[in-house]
Structures are given as C-alpha cells and as structure tokens.
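Hey, I'm writing a tutorial for new members on how sequence and structure tokens pair up, and I'd like a real worked example in the thread rather than a made-up one. If someone can provide the structure for the chain below, I'll link this post from the tutorial.
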Amino acid sequence: MLILPACGHSEQNRLAQNGCRYVDKEGFMYAQADTSTSSDLLVYTKADTPKTGSQLLPEETFTILQSFINNLSELGLSAQLVSLQDQRDISLTVKEAGTATTTATSTVEIRLDLSDSLNQAYTDLKTVIEKDAFVATSSDKAGTQENKVSPFALEYIDLRFGNKVFYK
C-alpha cells in the first residue's frame, strides 16, 4: 500500500505499525519511514515489503500515477490511501479536499488499472463528477425515481474498464 501523505497520521496508525517505507519520485524504496514526521513522499507498507533500494514501480508508471493523484485536487478530491493490489490494479481512497477528518461516509475508493491510460481514466472521472452522473434509482407508488448521489456516498468508482465507469 502507498499511503498519502505519511504513515504517522492518526487515521493510518494501524497501517504504520506494519512498517512504513518511503518511496521516491522514481519509485525506489527507502529505509523505514519516521512516522512522527510529515512528508509529501508516498509511503509503502505491507507485510512483505520489497527490499530497501528496490524499485516499487517503473519510473514512468510511478510518474503517471503521481500526476493522476496530484490532479485529483482539481476535482475537489484529496488522496488518502493508495493501495497497490499487484503490478496493475490499484485503488485510491479519496476524501473531499479541505475536510479535516476522514470517516467511512466521506471517502470513496477509486479503482484503476495501471496498464490503461490514466489520463483517460482522469478524464472519465472528471466527466462523471462534473456532470453529477452518479444516480440511485428508487421505486415508489408513483413509479421509478432517480436521485443524484454524491461521490462520497458511494463505496467505489471503478475506472478499470475502458471508458466505462462503474460505481456502487
């Protein structure tokens, strides 16, 4: 898992106990992170962490991922946790930018495939957020009703299937 912005934040203390590592802009692992300080560097934590000095992701992939994460602020989103499932699948837990705390109802997971174009995934995400495209349907005696849904009321937004956006 990559954690933003650092392991030591109160919300991430449980993960910090597993052993945090710094990852530089080229994707290389550093020694164990100091969880008492804040950093703009991404941090990786997992039971079987790669060796210090090894490259977590290829530099080009890491640079594109970092760009995607940085661009989320334009959509009013702030990345809290980046979880690398394998060398392809990744999930980002994001909250509304500017909120001080994170609760289960104020975050949403964004699922990505690193082998896809993250620029296209960002464009798709931007489109659905700006167009209020998230809807929930409900039925009553008068018929079916559609209501707009906040992205933070969702469990996840899945951008891994081309230009299709799935959400739950």
